[in-house]
Specification:
The chain is of the alpha+beta class. The longest helix has 27 residues. It has six helices and eight strands, in the order E-E-E-E-E-E-H-H-H-H-H-E-E-H.
């Protein structure tokens, strides 16, 4: 509801972006990592914020006034091209998230979220830090923490994840997203 007068750039840390329904239900719509912009809708959208950005751990964020951002986009071709690629990637990701939410089971949504958080397919895979809780993951995939806990336990027993000062994700977890491998196994 605050006035949208700037774009933000995350230099380091982690930020969650969330929305709240009229009934007070919160949904996490994204986990932002260093090198990502947020609040970009102000450039061609509503004059007020429709989501909230909250630091999950110590972060440094640069605020770029809307007029300054438009000047950069209009005056610096390299920056405009970089920003366009970023926006196209974001649009593709949002479409994939929407399809995932509409068509996939909680188990597949969880597996996909863990792979994204661990950077599979987008860089060097890494451990998911302890700042990403099961509650936060539940908000990201649209379910409850007990359901996330159930499937995390199942994934751990299958050797698809390990807890070691964070969550280590095995590349074999991709099989859960690609097919129904774990549906055929009865893990309690």
């Amino acid at each position: 509801g605050e006035r949208a007068e700037a774009v933000y750039y995350l230099q380091y840390g982690n930020v969650k972006e969330s929305v709240v329904s009229d009934q007070g239900r919160e949904a996490v719509v994204g986990m932002l990592e260093p090198g990502l912009f947020f609040g970009t809708a102000c450039l061609d959208g509503p004059a007020v914020r429709t989501s909230t950005a909250t630091a999950v751990k110590a972060s440094m964020v640069t605020m770029i006034a809307k007029d300054a951002m438009n000047a950069l986009l209009n005056g610096r071709v390299e920056f405009a091209q970089l920003f366009r690629v970023y926006q196209l990637h974001l649009t593709s990701r949002l479409e994939a998230d929407k399809i995932d939410l509409m068509l996939n089971s909680i188990e597949k949504r969880l597996a996909r979220a863990l792979l994204i958080l661990a950077h599979y397919g987008g860089g060097t895979p890494r451990k998911i830090g302890p700042d990403i809780s099961q509650e936060l993951i539940a908000e990201m995939i649209g379910t409850t923490r007990p359901r996330v806990n159930f499937f995390m336990t199942k994934f751990r027993k299958l050797g698809l994840i390990k807890y070691n000062g964070g969550i280590e994700v095995s590349p074999n977890l991709l099989s859960v997203v690609m097919n129904e491998l774990t549906k055929t196994e009865n893990v309690e």
